[in-house]
Amino acid sequence: MKKEIRLNAFAMNCVAHQSPGLWTHPRDRTAEYNRLPYWTDLARTLERGRFDGVFLADVLGVYDVFGGSPDAALRNATQTPANDPLLLISAMAAVTENLGFGVTSNLSYEPPYTFARRMSTLDHLTDGRIGWNVVTGYLDSAARGAGKEKQTAHDDRYDVADEYMEVVYKLWEGSWEDDAALRDRARGIFADPAKVHQIRHEGKNYRLDAIHLCEPSPQRTPVLYQAGTSPRGRQFAAEHAECVFMSGPSAKIIAPRVAGIRELAAKAGRNPSEVLMFSMLTIILGRTEAEAKAKYADYRRHVSHEGALTLMSGWTGVDFSTYDLDQQVRHVQNDAGRTAMDNITRADPDRVWTVREVAEHVGIGGIGPVVIGTPEQVADQIEAWFDQTDVDGLNVPFAISPGDFEDISDMLVPELVRRGRYKSAYRPGTLREKLFGANRARLSAPHPAVQYRPRIGARAAE
Fold it and tell me: Hey, how many other C-beta atoms are within 10 angstroms of the C-beta on 295?
């Protein structure tokens, strides 16, 4: 039995996102990112295509590594300006019934007490369609914006993240019992105080003495995504994540990362098949092969190579403005993200990248592969990708939006359904139930969150 192919639209509350320069294309609407109609129209398009969700990226800070200033990022709209992604979700949820929302939020600069309330609120308002992509950041400019000299060291950020997860699990899972909110009009009692528990936490990084401000939401803990594939990131994913997003230019790079996280999940006592793997892949479609190739060539004329290198400089912490275009990229390890540098240096020993090749590749769809062709040709390539990598789904960025998502919904999805590889209708329930099955609205053992649920009658969750 072949896996069902899952699709997330990969977007960000900014201009162009992963395809720098493409905002100049006459059919692209991302310059309207700061207007609600753009997002509500996109949500309707994605629900028409039965996308599992929209995966909203985010980054705090500005891409100021390239040239040592934010100028290139500002010229090219390289994920700058970038608005808050969480504020989009209520509007998009209001015009859809099934589309999920995986939203990125950086825990390094957000207190767990207030963040837990924000996510519970969204889980209520979406009827349980919210997910959280857990990130720790990679830009020193974000740390400076938050009053720090520089960001915390890479692996130390994950140590902080482990404790952060403990705190939010206690709030989401341990503060309110399921039947605490009575809504008893006759007696005038809304909530039973005996079933609402004080959360006390004394740790290295966080202290808390409070009840969670929200009654239990449909999922309690949102569906948990994680996007780091460094060794420490993989360990974090194996312990906490339900869905893992990874990027890489080839199946040769993605396949061992998938296998590695599944192995770590098994060692952590979890079912490795229930950690869903999503890889990034850009799709360019045409009714004919010639049409698809012409569309891709048209897109390439709008690529900003400076914008692409600005992105890579931010992702890797390496100033690519100091490199000659034909210079080979060599590995550097620092406290920025690790995955992007590994993708173009040591992840594939048989591939040598020059700076020029990096700029060309990243120009459309970031560091992931691009597949081009008719619906039949693209479906063939996607099926081969699944066979080669063992992923469970795709995070699909765009060259232009919403046009590329319209093409996927109207051309590719019918072909995948015909092959029996894509759902013909949404499953009922929350986002977690749509991904993992009926009666799975909430996390189950052995996930670490479960241990923080209160014992019946307990007055506190420690």
Answer: 20
